[in-house]
Design brief:
Radius of gyration of chain A: 15 Å
Strand order of the largest sheet of chain B: 2-1-3
Oligomer: heterodimer
Shape of chain A: globular
Helix content of chain B: 40-55%
Radius of gyration of chain B: 16 Å
CATH superfamily of chain A: Mannitol-specific EII, Chain A
Number of strands of chain B: 3
Strand content of chain B: 5-15%
Distance between the termini of chain A: 16 Å
Helix content of chain A: 40-55%
Largest sheet of chain B: 3 strands, mixed
Chain lengths: 156, 119
């Protein structure tokens, strides 16, 4: 799985309006242009958040859920203009959010593997202090691509 | 807006049940815990409680169908319809079924609940 290949320019918003966690999640789901299905997806994501925040620390959150309303793994990315409270694990505010929706059935548990990879990439982004660096969606995808290549080299 | 039929409400309940079961199953995966997501201590208990509440709202025959399909197909108990084909088993569906978009029907070949994806 290559994360950069799952990203698309129109599903990245690097100037997301800061607000409550629920509002930001909604804005990111709306980027998927799911019409009336958006509300169902939002409700599933918020239910997951009730069980514990998906803010993994160091300014990054990864809200996620499975939904019958998608037939392949879909991702949107947002960066808020100002960090927001996400009740993250380290209690620090969050500004970079990867939102992931996966279909209920996926052979080989690709969804969980992808989640794991995103966490790994997200940790690299914070380690290298790159959260605020990309200024456009294209630059963001390039950054992710470079990190993935570096991580792949390390694994060799 | 037209009032939802009993079947439409039930399909919605089955969807919610599947969502809950997916969450319970994912959270139980060792890889999920390893990733480092925060889960409240009583999360699984709370999910199981919600599951039981939901089960009470679903008619017995549908609950049994759900459990049967889950056992057989794991998470793939619903199948979308595309151009007249069941996406679960890729068999052509009989024409008379294709108009019943608001009823709970199962694929005559694989038995999955047929689901019309909104466009």
């Amino acid at each position: 799985m290559n994360l950069a290949s799952l990203l698309s320019k129109d599903r990245i918003n690097l100037t997301l309006k800061p607000g409550k966690k629920d509002e930001v999640i909604k804005d990111l789901v709306y980027l998927m242009k799911k019409g009336s299905d958006a509300d169902v997806i939002i409700s599933t994501l918020l239910k997951r958040e009730e069980l514990g925040s998906t803010g993994i620390g160091k300014g990054i959150a990864i809200p996620h859920c499975r939904s019958l309303l998608v037939d392949k793994l879909e991702i949107t990315v947002g960066r808020t203009i100002k960090p927001i409270n996400f009740n993250a694990i380290d209690k620090k505010p969050v500004s970079l959010i990867f939102l992931i929706i996966a279909p209920p059935q996926d052979p080989g548990n690709q969804y969980l593997i992808t989640l794991g990879k995103i966490v790994q990439i997200a940790k690299e982004i914070t380690r290298k202090n790159l959260i605020d660096k990309p200024q456009t969606s294209e630059e963001f995808i390039t950054t992710i691509n470079e990190i993935e290549k570096e991580l792949a080299k390390k694994r060799l | 807006m037209a009032k939802a039929t009993e079947d439409e409400i039930n399909i919605e309940l089955l969807n919610l049940l599947l969502d809950l079961d997916n969450l319970i199953a994912d959270m139980a995966e060792p890889i999920y815990k390893k990733i480092g997501f925060q889960i409240e201590d009583d999360a699984t208990l709370s999910l199981m409680r919600k599951r039981n509440e939901l089960m009470q709202k679903i008619p017995r025959e549908l609950r049994e169908l759900y459990e049967r399909l889950k056992k057989r197909y794991h998470r793939a108990i619903f199948a979308t319809v595309e151009e007249g084909f069941c996406r679960g088993c890729f068999q052509k569906l009989p024409t008379e079924l294709l108009t019943k978009t608001k009823e709970i029907i199962t694929c005559p070949n694989c038995g999955r609940i047929i689901y019309w994806q909104k466009k």
